[in-house]
Amino acid sequence: MLSTRGGVRTRLDALSSPGGLFVSAVLAIATLPVTGVIRDPDFWWHLRAGQLILASKALIATDPFTYTVASHHWTMHEWLTEVLFAVMHQAGGLGLIVLVLSVLTWFGIVWILLRARLRRPNLFVLGIGVLLAVVAGYPIWGPRAQMITFAFSCLVLLLVERHLERGGRLIWLLVPLFMLWSNLHSGFIIGLGFIAVVVAAELIGGRLRFADGAPASRVRTLGVVLILSAAVAMINPNGPAILVYAFQTQGSAAQQSLILEWHSPDFHDWQVWAFELMLLSTVALIVANRRIRARDAALVVVTIALALQSVRHIALFVAAVTPIWIDQASMLVRRRRRPARPRRAVAPLAFRATTFVTVILLVAVVYVGGRLVPDMRTQENALAYAQQYPVCAARWLAAAPQPLRIFNQYGEGGYLAYRLSAQGDRVFIFGDAALMGDSMLRTYGDVEGVQPEWESVIEESGTDLVLFDTGTPLANILEASGWIKVYQDPMSVAFVPVSKYHALHLPAVPAAYTPGDPCQQQLASVTSNAGGTG
Description:
Helix content is 62%, strand content 4%. The chain is mainly α and 534 residues long. The protein folds into two domains: 23-335, no CATH class; 383-530, no CATH class. Helix 3 packs across helix 4 and helix 8 (188-208) crosses helix 13.
């Protein structure tokens, strides 16, 4: 009992110290950027796929959303995530999904901090490092399936580091974790890759006499865990094929060139400046200290290469490198520390602990009331979503008397599939790039880029209607080519060929909506600025 009380007192003393308060404040601030409305365009088709799986009580074998690649086999690498989305949506709407994914992302940041704490860093450096990581990951944060891979990667790296530093049996938790992860998201291959990199680095580092290598017995145990984790990952509806599928996106030139999220970071964009700062300062710290563990060096090299290849991999860089940045910065601080000054008197522990708890509760109230609850209450038909997705255009298309074949913007196919597939409408393309295939991606890219064959591709595929973003080259050339404009709002514009205009019997654009309807605001904007639709 006395030792328990002493442990609680020690923790309270650490948490309510100036450094502890700073770290706690950083963790509280981290809740803000990881919480938001759904901005991932792929979320919507994941949700619809989950609903279809629940309805049929079976996985979907072929693409149910397009009229172009409906015969393609669908490797459903996120089937369990999609089912969970559907269950949560049924139980609590979008709000419950926002809550769960935001909390999971925040736990990933906590696991980064706990991994950094294993090396006993300076608390102020710890807080600064986590804060830098939170800002560096800004382009990636938000409720999306990828956050499962981010959080689980952080947990894997924590358990691996803890095992190499302290030993113990917790490392065996990775085996059931990978069995779960391989059914949630194909990013599990990243976790296996991290373990493989660490094992290889420790073996090579031992030969090269790197500093602070782990005991050979622990490295061997980690190798066994890696083999077993890879084996249980195949306990999956896709079987061993899931291991191959996970590499397909990484090797697809079409996806790398056409999908924005797979592009290299644009360092002219302010959103990646924090990542650039973290990358450059990591290298500078390693050069200044001239001391680094072999496994740390390997993780830095691998994740820098991944992050420079693709914006979406910045999250992996943050997961792997943040504790290394903190360790290197703490090392530099210790080297340059001045002689200790006499310790100043501090307030009594009871006062500091009460202040700490009060501040944390106040921050929690502000966060929940000012950020979390408003984002959870944002419904699909709210203006926040109508300004990001073709909410109003989909509502208009839903009133059509017969199913339509819609040529669409790549990133909007998921929302259109979610809203319209139940009534038989089909899209040209949606966000599962591996399912679409490189040939389809290149064909779509030619049309989007208004290459000479753009019109023949649209017509020969059997398209009834083109729904695209207002002001894009394709929308402009459709209007100039004599296609009939049948709908427009500030986000979307729809055209049909003259030959199909009368046969489609498209609904009229509503003249009025109920007060406060986001589509009323959208269409009013078009009417006042452009004098109405075509």
